[in-house]
Amino acid sequence: MKLYNTLTKKVEEFVSNEQGKVKMYTCGPTVYHYAHIGNLRTYIFEDILEKGLKFIGYDVKRAMNITDVGHLTSDGDTGEDKMAKGAAREGKTVYEIADFYTKAFLDDMVALNIKVPTLIEKASDNIDVYIKMITKMLEDGYAYVSGGNVYFDISKSNDYYKLSGNVDDLMVGVRDTVEEDTSKKNPADFVLWFTVSK
Description:
Elements: E1 2-5, E2 10-13, E3 21-26, H1 37-55, E4 59-66, H2 82-90, H3 94-111, E5 119-122, H4 127-139, E6 143-146, E7 149-152, E8 190-193
């Protein structure tokens, strides 16, 4: 099987890290509302890749996350939490919203003949793991606290732009819906942990 390699920018023969086995992580939904066909298109692509790998003989184990906490409405790390917004919209708790729309998403997968991944992990079940990881990044200088939030410092990662390529064309806060976060050391730093204001 040949795939496009984002690192080399070439189509190359796929070679697994472990003979005959593939471990895949694919991003999952934020379960604050129904998925639309544009959302589901992503999961169809992931499914085709997994089934293609299985067809040519690989033993595939795929993991997917369910974001049921901490996803903001803005691409600029601002705005409301999508889960809290969904709960307010429907007069339910965040847990009720997450449970309902997770089930709806899994029903959509079945309806579209998308194989449900081997492992599905909810964000809310792994908060202790995130805290340990972020604490380690703070200790090692890869993250910093500013404005009450914790940010990843991209300047500490020499090859941060290795996959995306040219950084000269990047612009901050270009869209009207995105505000520049002045708490960041570097415009491309991203939030690892938000402080929720009451």
